[in-house]
Amino acid sequence: MLRRAVAVELEATKELNKLLYSVEAMYLSIVREVVAYAVEHNVTNPTQLHRLFYSKYRREYPSLNSQLVIQAIRQSSEIAKSFIEKKRRGLASKPYPEVKAVSIRFVETTWNYEQFASSIAPVRIVISPISTGKRGRGGRRFEAWLRLHKRFWQYWWRVLNGEAELAGTLIVKRRANKWYAVFIFEVKPREAKPQSVVSFDINENTVAVGRVNLPSTVDRVAGWNRQYMVPELYTIKTDFGRLARRYGRIRDTITERLKPLYTLPNGNHVNIADTREYRKRVKHLREKNRKIGRVRHVANELIKTPGIIITEELGENPQESMINGIGRDELRHRIKQTPFKSIEKAVEDKALERGSRVFHVSAYRNSRVCPIHFTRLEGTSDWHTLQCPLGHLVDRDHASVMNMAWKLTPEAWAKGVWWDLKSEEMNWKAREGDSNPIIPYPIVQYLHAALKEFKASFEQSPAMLARGTPMNPAREANEDWARKPPTPHKAGRRPGMGLSIG
Fold first, then answer.
1. Where are the domains of the chain?
2. Average pLDDT, 10 consecutive residues per value, the chain (502 residues)
3. Percentages (nearest 5) of helix, strand, coil residues in the chain
């Protein structure tokens, strides 16, 4: 199952608006205190924290719904675990986390989940943030209308068709003095016949794409019109490198303007990047949002139709291997700022939702072999254009995406080992006594056995866990738990509907 988070703006009355502000203040106070205790004493188990703090906060905030107290303690446990992990990896510079904002979580018993999930066109929600009965039970319910939009209706249509389920947890959060309700949809991965084979290669400023339309290729029209047999090769302009260079100049300008304000008596300067004024100015830059928009654009372009998606195996941190041996600081910065893994994860996420499958192939010799004659390419005066020994020029990016598509075929192991091996000469016994001057013969035998055993297939594709993509108005509703595969204790489900495994 995939998870998708969709934020919808609430039309809250003045009474509900004041109430939500007060509930948010109490909720935030609980989270801050519990997080500080959990980090200091290294107690991150939500059950232990519940035993320690639940009675205290029920006495301190008797009007707050008891379920909100429980959710605040659980949210504190998640924040503490995340901070301790970052601190262990050296990514946290402070001794404790600063919780500046929280999102209020309503379980299915504190809002009209049953009525909402059974409605054909839900247009309002009813929540119960305060309690008036004993032990935090009961209480007045408040009604709020929803400003629904296209993205919500897209997923709600899937709910009506049985392709998705609505989780029982409702998230209410405030952004720019507006309240938003975040709904979590558990979407079943689609299964569809592949309509195309798409291979893509990520570069600094472009993404090279090779697309083969399967219906046109196998159709009768290919018999008399050969243009449909040629893969469609094009590039998507991203300009990640130019974007990094531009914002680098902007940050340098801000630093130079702030230097006179932070000059020490001995003539040296304080580290400007650590000052409050610098962070205040830099946070208004739109570099991150522009990157996210371009990453989504690339993912949507590649997953237009269900198909087989092929890309290189990048590893955990591809930038580190790329900058080895590069001395220029500017070039190293541009490579580090290129979101290779973000594009890969966005494509994998969209592929599961739209019925495509993603395969990873080796990056070995993708851009150094002619995809037509399988001979080694030679360099020219242009770094991006290579020369085939048989007399034609080859674009490096186009060669890379076409060779990636070749590696899904059974003869890929041979074309990766011998430069001049033709398809009619692919006889292992006839080649048994030959050797490659570049690769030792035992390694050739190992590659042959491994690739023959573990070659990619459409039925046995690698399982990809999807993460919910950032949504819309509420600044992406960044709820980490809503992006993970659902678990029974975190998300409720519609009665009578079981969990289906995609």
1. 2-189+466-483, 196-361, 378-453
2. 90 91 94 93 92 93 92 94 89 85 92 91 91 61 92 93 92 92 91 86 90 72 55 88 90 89 82 86 85 91 89 84 80 87 90 88 82 82 86 87 78 51 50 53 63 48 37 50 50 40 32
3. 45, 20, 40
